[in-house]
TrEMBL record:
This is ABC transporter ATP-binding protein. Keywords: ATP-binding, Nucleotide-binding, Transport. Residues 5-228 form the ABC transporter domain. SUPFAM superfamilies: P-loop containing nucleoside triphosphate hydrolases.
Amino acid sequence: MDDSLTIKSVCKFRGDTQVLRDVVLSIAPGERLALLGHNGAGKSTLIKSILGLTPVHGGKISICGAVPGSAAARAATAFLPESVSFHPAITGREQLTLFARLSGAGADVVGLLDRVGLSDALDRRIGTYSKGMRQRLGLAQVLLGKPKLALLDEPTSGLDPISRQDLYAIIDELAAQGTAVLIASHALTEVEARTDRIAILRKGVKVADNTLASLSQQADLPTRMRITAKSDQIEQLAAHVGGKRINGAALEITCSADQKMEQLRRIAALGDAVVDISMTPPRLEDLYRHFSKEDGQ
């Protein structure tokens, strides 16, 4: 099956400054991709280029085989901006009904508003909505017409924790129906567990693009182990495994992924001297810092 989004060697200049440099990216139907990067890394420019709002100066972008900005590409794409805005004088029901008519989608407007948690506010004027409520209305718009590609720019902005969980449940539903989902976000903890692949931009260059497990293997960052010992055994433990003392009763050591089992066997050999052990593998935040070169390199 062809990819829903294909980006080949895309370059973009703003004056004399190159803001995208030979970016290659693709998203398959039903795949959820997290696009990460600092402010100014090129995420928003890339999204605008996918939407056909700004031309590229090299390379090619294809949405289900269509050119960005064409009628076919617009029909296949849904977009949720970070700061979504609607006319304040109309109601949520009226706004979504208008969007449904414009898109030609025979949508269950009331059902969609209920799905995003706005059933109690569907006949209230949007001017009375909080930012989180406007964000949920924007998400209802994304659900119209079962898009082939959904571009979500900081989709959890303004949402409370429960609403964030609901939003990712809806993203999962979109992916399950075959929608390719691109999520541009700074919320690393959220996207770590709810996306299939991670892509990282740094100063317009794609510096990483793979699954979390593959990126961890590629980065070869250490796993942290914290070992708690009996109070009278901490010195013996420190002499045996080394590491850094924590609060007088624990040790913290680091090891590479291929050394983890050997270290565990060494610690297990100490028997009752060890009270507890916990392991913390590299998280997305660690990988992000590594690939975006924010680790002092």
